[in-house]
Amino acid sequence: MPNTLATDAAARRSQEETLPWVSTHPVTTQANKLVILATGGGKRYLITLRPGQVFHTNLGHFQHDDLIGLPLGTTVHSQLGNPVLLLEPSLSDLITRIKRNTQIIFPKDAAYLVHKLSLRNGDQVIEAGTGSGGLTIALAWAVAPAGRVYTYEVRDDNYQIARANLERVGLLENVSMYMQSVAEGFRQQGADAVFLDVRTPNLFLDQVRAALRPGGFFAALIPTTNQVIDLLAALERKSFADIAVEELLLRQYKVVPDRLRPDDSMVGHTGYLVSARPVVDPTDPGRWLSEDRKRYAARLEFEEKALAEEERRQAGNTDAGDRPRRLPLP
Fold it and tell me: What is the mean pLDDT of residues 84-107?
């Protein structure tokens, strides 16, 4: 069996001599840090490099000691001679390759949620429920190192799995975890953002307003339209504004330059993202509803007036010479 590490080292030296874009100061792997082993067939393995351990795959096994100290972005071989690419994990890798006890929030939704919640280093964000911790990872990634995520979960099995996942990816120090129902309220006040991943978010907006600073950022991800309808109605009652409902669809493409085309399958509907901002307007909070919502309300008012006018005429309350009055459209 050839010495694959020696072969890899010789290949790297040759590459550095012939390829001008290869860095002379590469970032190298370290013990007790996460890496990705990516195969040519599209599989990706997230592993923590630990001295003395061995990682087994259908391509053969990899000695952790042989991988520690190697430059990221280089090719390594199993004891069978099969190549894999040694990479730094992306945020998407961390989210999708954790241990799951629940359906995780997909990276496409997680990334957009970070955007909608306007998260940055130093922010304080509240999440309920934690689930397996996929979105918690994205939230902690966004607010670290000075910020903090406060996440609430009612199930002990989810709590334990999420804690282990956060510890594995090195973000637990930026997260405070509570095994507590959102119905009991949150322990924080003045948070910059609150996110709900619960079955009935419409029932917990009082708790959200108590924890969220005025003008802060609120969002919820829910799977069905009837849940969206209930939440929209509740947001109006609780004086939220800047309300939006969005759905994200992501389509992958076959990476073949000569015949670029979409993949045969895609991740379609994963959930509806509802976002809003709590406002303080003691005179008329409804003034900040969307123009579409205002026009719809005006149309309902018009229809009620038209129906009342028709009932009045049919009841014989108009004079014989009266003509039916045309009500102005809103």
Answer: 92
Cis peptide before 129 (omega within 30 of 0): yes
Phi, psi torsion values for 47, nearest 5 degrees: -135, 155
Question: What gap in Å lies between CA 192 and CA 216, rounded to an integer?
Answer: 5
**Strand ranges for 138-229 from DSSP E:** 148-153, 175-179, 191-196, 212-222
Q: What is the pTM of this model?
A: 0.82
Does the domain at residues 93-288 carry the CATH identifier 3.30.1490.100?
no
Number of Cβ within 10 Å of residue 161's Cβ equals: 21
Partners of 56 in beta bridges: 61
**Do residues 47 and 37 lie in contact, with contact meaning Cβ atoms separated by under 8 Å?**
yes
Cis peptide leading into residue 145 (ω within 30°): yes
Query: Domain 4-89 adopts which CATH fold?
Result: Vcp-like ATPase; Chain A, domain 2 (3.10.330)
The string of pLDDT tens digits covering residues 269-297 is 899 999 999 988 877 877 888 788 888 88
CA distance 240 to 214: 10
Kindly state the DSSP code that residue 22 receives in the 8-state scheme: S
Q: In the Cβ-directed half-sphere of 24, how many Cα atoms lie within 13 Å?
A: 3
Quick check: helix, strand or coil at residue 101? coil
Two tokens, residue 64: 């952790």
Cα–Cα distance measured from residue 78 to residue 81, given in angstroms and rounded to the nearest whole number: 5
Dihedral sign for Cα atoms in the order 316, 317, 321, 327: negative
Average per-residue pLDDT in the chain? Answer: 89
Round to whole Å and give the CA distance between 245 and 273. Answer: 6
Between CA 297 and CA 291 the distance in angstroms is 10
How far is residue 134's CA from residue 109's CA, in Å, rounded to a whole number? 11
From the CB of residue 145, how many other CB atoms can be counted at a distance below 10 Å? 10
What is d(CA 100, CA 118) in angstroms, rounded to the nearest whole number?
A: 27
End-to-end CA distance of the chain: 83
